[in-house]
Amino acid sequence: MYRLLRAGMVITALALLAGCSENERSKPVTPAVTAAAIPGDLTYQDVLQKGEVVHNLAMTADARQVWVGTHSGLYSSAGGGLWGLLFPQLEQEDVAGWYVDPQNPRQIFMAGSDGVMRSTDGGETWNRADEGLPKPANIRSFIGTREGDQIRLFAFVTGEGIYQSSDEGDQWKMWLPLDQEVYAMDYNPLEDRLYVAAQYNLLYHESGQWYTETVPNVQQIYCLAVDRTTGILAVATEQGIMEKEDGEWRPLAAKAPEKLIVVAPGAGPYRWVGIGESAFVYALTDDKWTKWN
């Protein structure tokens, strides 16, 4: 019972992590649970020890919690410097990405080195949702977006390319074969573009065509993220964080304490959140990066 309660308490917060398209933002959103509702029984060092590798992160819309997907489970900050494990049923699962249906927060998708899993009851039970994907499907990047009545899911499978599902994960089809690694993907609803940080290029898909985007004075892109409310695109590079707004690239003036290799949209007073080379989590507010954990 305790394990199921822990899963159930986090559903409303999960609904706020994935970002929303124009249609999604117009709908009422269930309030997030408070940080006190997350059982905090781990230090961040415990998370690093249990998770081994931190793949990604997101901030809840109330700006109280940061979530990190690891090689072994999904974790949330819980206040007081502590963290908690979310969805204990998936404690041993590699979490490369997740998406929660904004119209039905009890429908959750998670993806990683073992393919795609779907829950329709708020995380109490999980089933495979990877028909059409290679077996095994080593997914290294995963995102979702809702467009009206349709959920679109995108998954990059190492050694294969980007697969897409338009029926909530029931069937997957190859969308773009790629012979290079993909570090991150994100969708910009204001431009109707899918951005892809690949090993050699920054790509985007628009109106059925693929294009290459050039980031000035940048040789390597580690990660990218889209603020789906403002449409601002951020990329983590060897030169620091670069932002694209209204078609123009500019370096982020605030310098992080260390090189950031993962970036994600913030919430409330926080502009962005990121993960450094040391695996520590940082948040940007008032043009200053501070350590979250």
What would you note in describing this structure?
By secondary structure, the protein is mainly beta. The protein has a domain at 2-179: Hemopexin (4 Propeller). It has 4 helices and 25 strands. The protein has a 5-stranded antiparallel β-sheet with strand order 1-5-4-3-2, with helices on one face. β10 and β11 (150-157) form a beta hairpin. The longest helix has 8 residues, at 2-9. The radius of gyration is 18 Å and the shape is globular. The relative contact order is 0.12. Mean pLDDT is 85; it is low at 1-36.
Helicity, as a percent range: under 10%
Name the CATH class of the domain at 2-179: Mainly Beta
Radius of gyration: 18 Å
| CATH fold name of the domain at 2-179 | Hemopexin
Largest sheet: 5 strands, antiparallel
Helix and strand sequence: HHHEHEEEEEEEEEEEEEEEEEEEEEEEE
Classify the secondary structure makeup into a structural class: mainly beta
Features:
single chain; 293 residues; mainly beta; Hemopexin; 4-stranded antiparallel β-sheet; 25 strands; 8% helix; disordered N terminus
Q: Topology, please?
A:
Layout: H1 2-9, H2 11-14, H3 22-25, E1 42-43, H4 44-51, E2 54-59, E3 66-70, E4 73-79, E5 82-86, E6 97-100, E7 108-112, E8 115-119, E9 127-128, E10 139-147, E11 150-157, E12 161-165, E13 173-177, E14 182-188, E15 193-198, E16 202-206, E17 209-213, E18 221-226, E19 233-237, E20 240-245, E21 248-251, E22 260-265, E23 272-276, E24 281-285, E25 288-291
Antiparallel strand pairs: 1-5, 2-3, 3-4, 4-5, 6-7, 7-8, 8-9, 10-11, 11-12, 12-13, 14-15, 15-16, 16-17, 18-19, 19-20, 20-21, 22-23, 23-24, 24-25
